Amino acid sequence: MILLLKILFFIVLNITPGDMIFKYDTKEKLVVFRLEEPAFNANLAEDFITAIHNLKDLDGRSLVLDMADVQSIDHPGIEAILAVYQEIYAKNLSCCLANLNSALTAQVNDAAGDQFINIVPTVSEAMDIVMMEEIERELGLDIDEGM
Asked: What is the pTM of this model?
């Protein structure tokens, strides 16, 4: 019975043992992607990018990255986040990071250099930013495209 539950768990999350652990929640105009790993390192960076690229529900939707469980990020992890962030904006959609602790927020901002990154304390605020940028695009207003 326990084995069956483990198999079902991995099928539902569309992951296999040993892969990066994440959950996602699809909304009408966005996807909330929650990385459930304490350390976002080089070993997970490629898996992260692949998971985002393979996420069919993301097609035509903006992205909120919920980083509540992440306690550390190395340089390849930050580069993966920034690459996904730029890809989302290149599709004329929005991206926002939520629940990063203050040390990780500083790391991401430092790595981003001149690029503006939407980072907010909660997923609710991230969803608000994404929806506000969607309204601005619909109204034809000039938004900062996260860049």
From this structure: 0.82
